[in-house]
Specification:
By secondary structure, the protein is of the alpha/beta class. It has 2 domains: 7-145 and 342-354, Nucleotidyltransferase, domain 5 (2-Layer Sandwich), CATH 3.30.420; 166-338, ATPase, nucleotide binding domain (Nucleotidyltransferase, domain 5), CATH 3.30.420. Helix content is 36%, strand content 18%. The chain is built from 12 helices and 11 strands. The strands form 2 sheets. A 6-stranded mixed beta sheet has the order 3-2-1-4-6-5. Strand 1 and strand 2 form a beta hairpin. The longest helix has 24 residues, at 277-300. The model has no long low-confidence stretch (mean pLDDT 92).
Length: 372
């Protein structure tokens, strides 16, 4: 397919928002963010994530119509395909995956947890079937390219499980490679994704050979990151929290929020500018932990690092960058890509399939290996 006007609808569901955009091979044509208020989401509390499918799809349909597009994708500007942010699937290789009923069934089971990203594939399939085209996901969070030694902990009862921001970190690594006239497979990179969650990853020969996981590493706006294991064990059996409350503390009420009562980095910086020493100390500690994790990935790459790439929403903060740079500049030159351009990354993955640059994969019934 070589039509430069071919359009891909890309959908990225988050916890409190749904982002979607329309992309051609030449770039972004439309991008929108739909916010979901607490009152709207309250009726879904405690229910399976996929029960929100029709609610979110309806919001997208309304927004598309308001922007002048046929929500069914069959108007004068039809979709060539639809892409959704991948969900918590079994470990698979990087790539673009065809959404089918088997994938939806796996996401419905939510064996790796209920998360808003599990809605990406069902939403894509919903709009793709209406338009009579294929739906895809690209580089889902469970892309696993780790080297074998990265899986060990100190106990066979608790192996490390690879879950992170594969979509954005892979897209940024490919973008840097293109901009520097190099092949991704020839570069040794560290990619730091700083968003609601933190992923610091080591890339070698076109693969992410190690990273922290959603359970480890630096704390973020509302996640605790790594905790002292015996302290965590005591907390589990202290009776202070139910299992659901503890999970919420680890993944939603930890990090900046636990210390400062806000998840908003802009608010934290406002407090620092007003002289709040506690806010300054907490932010410095978070950046310190990001730097420590970056140093660990430098060791994974044996000190041979071509570049350190910094991305994610917090990469917009000059204060964070000023704190981070002197702690990691010794490793390799830094390049900053602020924001999370995941919608574009989804569209680019689909265009690679439409243009024959790669084959669409399928998530197999036996997830030990995904097939092209």
């Amino acid at each position: 397919m070589s039509d430069q006007n071919a359009r891909v609808l890309a959908i990225d569901p988050g916890t409190t928002s749904t982002k979607f955009g329309i992309y051609t091979r030449t770039g972004e044509e439309l991008a929108r963010t739909i916010r979901h208020g607490d009152e709207e989401l309250e009726r879904f509390r405690g229910r399976p994530m996929l029960e929100r499918l029709q609610y979110r799809a309806g919001k997208i349909e309304v927004a598309l119509a308001e922007a002048g597009y046929d929500p069914q994708g069959k108007g004068a500007e039809p979709w060539a395909a639809v892409a959704g942010r991948g969900g918590l699937l079994p470990p698979i290789s990087c790539g673009t995956y065809l959404v089918d009923d088997a994938m939806i069934a796996e996401l419905r089971q939510a064996r790796l947890g209920e998360h808003a990203c599990n809605l990406g594939a069902p939403l894509a399939l919903n709009f793709a079937r209406a338009a009579g085209v294929h739906a895809y996901i690209v580089d889902p969070p469970t892309v696993d390219e780790w080297q074998p030694c990265a899986r060990f902990t100190g106990s066979p009862l608790a192996p490390r499980v690879c879950i992170g921001h594969a979509l954005n970190t892979k897209a940024v690594a490919r973008r840097y490679s293109r901009e520097h006239s190099g092949a991704y497979a020839d570069l040794r990179l560290i990619v730091i994704h700083m968003g609601s969650g933190m992923t610091v990853s080591a890339h070698r020969q076109g693969k992410t050979i190690d990273s922290n996981t959603i359970e480890e590493g630096p704390f973020g706006p509302d996640r605790t990151g790594s905790l002292p294991v015996r302290s965590l064990a005591r907390l589990c059996f202290s009776g202070r929290m139910t299992p659901a409350e503890l999970d919420r503390h680890l993944f939603g009420d930890g990090g900046l929020f636990a210390y400062l009562g806000t998840r908003d980095l802009v608010e934290v910086e406002r407090r620092i500018e007003a002289g709040d020493r506690e806010a300054a100390a907490v932010l410095e500690a978070m950046v310190y932990q990001i730097a420590k994790e970056t140093g660990a990935m430098a060791a994974v790459l044996q000190g041979q690092v071509d570049a350190v790439l910094v991305t994610g929403g917090m990469a917009h903060s000059e204060r964070v960058l000023q704190l981070l740079r002197p702690q990691i500049a010794w490793i390799a030159p830094l390049t900053v890509y602020p924001g999370e351009d995941e919608l574009r990354a989804l569209a680019e993955g689909v265009f690679r399939v439409l243009d024959g640059e790669e084959l669409a994969r399928r998530v197999p019934t036996d997830p030990s290996k995904a097939t092209a």
